[in-house]
Write a structure and sequence with these properties.
Layout (H helix, E strand, L loop, with lengths): L1 E5 L25 E5 L5 H11 L3 E4 L6 H4 L3 H21 L7 E7 L22 H20 L2 E7 L2 E2 L8 H13 L6 E3 L5 E2 L2 E2 H11 L8 E3 L5 E2 H11 L4 E4 L6 E4 L5 E5 L10
Parallel strand pairs: 1-2, 3-4, 4-5, 5-10, 6-9, 7-14
Antiparallel strand pairs: 8-11, 12-13, 13-14
Helix pairs in contact: 1-3, 3-4, 5-7
């Protein structure tokens, strides 16, 4: 069985896992059991963990949008940083230190202003966002629980991992959905931030397997998971349009730069400063 924690919402917020229900139409659970809870509520975490008594815990919960973390800095710290501590403390409170394996979804945003290329497990951290700073606390509190209480706890320092289930306001899905809408005649143009930002993008399916494998080892150890390749947002845009038979030609500079379709002359991409991070990585 797999148990999950879901936040209460006035509208259904399980769209990305509906296929896991025994009956998706009626939301009837099978081997997946959902519990209402929140990483900001330590009481509910203790209650759920004590009831379920899991053998593996994967902490994938977070306010995970880096740009938005600048607007919601305190909330991001509470959920991503202290929320991890609440979860670890709940394991300890329930007396499950010796029987639980704990996976923490760490992040390449810890490296931020990179101190060496390529990054590895021993690369010094230099986070450049409230999200990265909160995840840095989470990383070290996991290490502390591992060393202080002998808890099998690991940090997976994962670079960007994408799939069709990625949230629509993340750049990869924003580009792919917008290009699809342009192809269908539902949209003419969309705006992006820094076109020259570079990321290491992998597929979520491979990265989730890596998470699971990290909890199957004999000894707990932190790992960096990445493809080893970086590509720019600009490249992502060009390849996406190529998929629908369009060639994007770039004109202008900085915030005045546009992406024009070579075949039709139409502008399909513009740059908007509101999508820039205050500090880029």
């Amino acid at each position: 069985q797999v148990h999950g924690i879901v936040r209460r919402s006035s509208s259904f917020n399980t769209g990305r896992i509906e296929h896991l229900y025994k009956n998706p139409q009626a939301h009837i659970e099978g081997n997946m059991k959902l519990h209402y809870g929140d990483l900001t509520d330590s009481t509910c975490l203790v209650k759920i963990i004590n009831e379920v008594k899991p053998t593996e815990i994967y902490n994938l919960g977070a306010q995970s949008h880096v740009k938005i973390s600048f607007d919601l800095a305190e909330y991001t710290a509470d959920v991503d940083g202290v929320g991890t501590l609440r979860l670890l403390d709940a394991i300890k409170t329930c007396g499950l230190i010796s029987s639980v394996k704990f996976y923490q979804a760490s992040t390449s945003e810890l490296f931020g202003k990179v101190q060496e290329i390529p990054q590895k497990e021993t690369t010094p951290f230099y986070p450049r966002s409230p999200y990265g700073a909160a995840k840095l606390y989470a990383y070290w509190i996991v290490v502390n629980f591992r060393e202080a209480y002998n808890l099998f706890a690991v940090n997976g320092i994962l670079f960007n991992h994408e799939s069709p289930r990625r949230g629509a306001n993340f750049v990869t899905r924003k580009i792919s959905r917008s290009v699809a809408k342009i192809h269908l005649g539902q949209l003419d143009c969309f705006s992006l931030g820094n076109l020259d930002a570079k990321r290491d993008w992998g597929h979520a399916r491979d990265y989730v397997e890596a998470m699971w494998l990290m909890l199957q080892t004999d000894e707990p150890e932190d790992f960096v998971i990445a493809t080893g390749e970086v590509h720019s947002v600009r490249e992502f845009v060009e390849k996406s349009f190529k998929h629908i038979g369009k060639t994007i030609v770039w004109e202008g500079k900085n915030e005045n730069e546009v992406g024009r379709c070579k075949e039709t002359g139409k502008i399909h991409v513009t740059v908007n400063h509101k999508y820039y991070r205050p500090t880029e990585v």
